[in-house]
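Module 6 notes. Inverse folding takes a fixed backbone as the condition and produces residue identities as the prediction. Think of it as a translation problem where the source language is geometry and the target language is the twenty amino acids. Below is one complete input and output pair. Work through it position by position during the lab.
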């Protein structure tokens, strides 16, 4: 029975021990660099969200004060 790579979603046949695309093993052990990149991406997204929230808050304050 074919399975999908838990790391990247590539279709893997049963006799393949590691993903042919990203090299992750079938049992879900991740390539270290990939997990680091992923947590970094999440952190970057969080920072972007905080900046967006700050800009919206500042815009709201500006709008209320300038009325
Ligand atoms: Zn993979």
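Target side of the pair, the amino acids:
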């Amino acid at each position: 029975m074919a399975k999908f790579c838990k790391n990247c979603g590539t279709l893997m046949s049963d006799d393949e021990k590691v993903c042919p695309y990203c090299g992750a093993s079938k049992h879900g052990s991740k390539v270290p660099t990939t997990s680091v990149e992923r947590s970094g991406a999440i952190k970057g997204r969080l920072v972007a969200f905080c900046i967006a929230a700050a800009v919206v808050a500042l815009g709201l304050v500006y709008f209320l004060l300038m009325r």
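Reference fact for the lab report: Residues 1-30 form one domain.
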